[in-house]
Amino acid sequence: MIAAADRALPPEESKAVGLTVEKCVPLGAKILGADMGLLLNDDERVPEVVLGALEENGVLVFPELGVDDAQLVAFAQRLGDPIGSGHTGAGRSGLNPEIYHVGFGDDLNNALYVKGAFNWHLDGSTDDIPSMASLLSGRALAAAGGDTQFVSTYAAYDRLTDEEKERFATTKVVHSAEAAYRKFDPNPSDEAIARLRKVAPKVHPLVWTHRTGRKSLVLGATASHIEGMDEGEGAAFLVELLERATAPEFVFTHKWSVGDLVIWDNRGTLHRATHYAEDSGRRMHRVTLVGDEPIS
Ligand code: OGA
Ligand code: MN
Questions:
Q1: Crossing angle of the two packed helices 69-79 and 45-57, in degrees rounded to 10
Q2: Which residues surround ligand 2, an ion (CB under 5 A)?
């Protein structure tokens, strides 16, 4: 695979493959000029340009690309290693096992997971290696709400004071599914707690030093408390740090049109969906790429 991180994106190269990268503020970029013919052609520079732009911008929006499931999987395979081959069950219906259906519906069984996405998070934060990136394709939209928002956790680290950077260098954060669940249901049933506790909590450093040398903050809904600190105090510290990282001026909001494709770098961003009703009919199809780097 291509070490996207080692690449600064030369604008001439994206132009040469027929793509225009238009930067957004405060993060993200639109990729213009793309169609599936171009994204799936044999030119190896296409995935290089896309991965380079992803590393540089955190989020890529391909407006109204209109990608179907087979094309979404094929494009994802050019960028990395899609999760879920052979997987069936919650959130997966239809012919492509790599496609995860984000939405509320009788054909799906993942309402809790989808509710969890209303809070800031990164995907796979209780895994050893969180996913590298996800591709989300807009299929049906909510009449109200249902935007997707992003912040850069690299930028959140960079904004710390020098004193904080030093103090946080050895801080370890306990992440758990239970902490994420309690953020939308503060009084879980005993049965829910027992189920949530089957997912072993995971301890991650607060500061992720990436292979590239860039540093990011590892925060979000699963962040429960700080190792070696009073639990309540640690939780309050994490809430405050998350608020700073996600202050409105640092947020990129994607307002969907049907057919949009959005890719986020799950290593250097947090994301969430703004609230939408369970009967809104909103449906997104997602392919997630296997992680390539443990949090360390
Ligand atoms: C996800 C997710 C946000 C959205 O699929 O991992 O968080 O807007 N989705 O649906
Ligand atoms: Mn998510």
A1: 80
A2: 117, 123
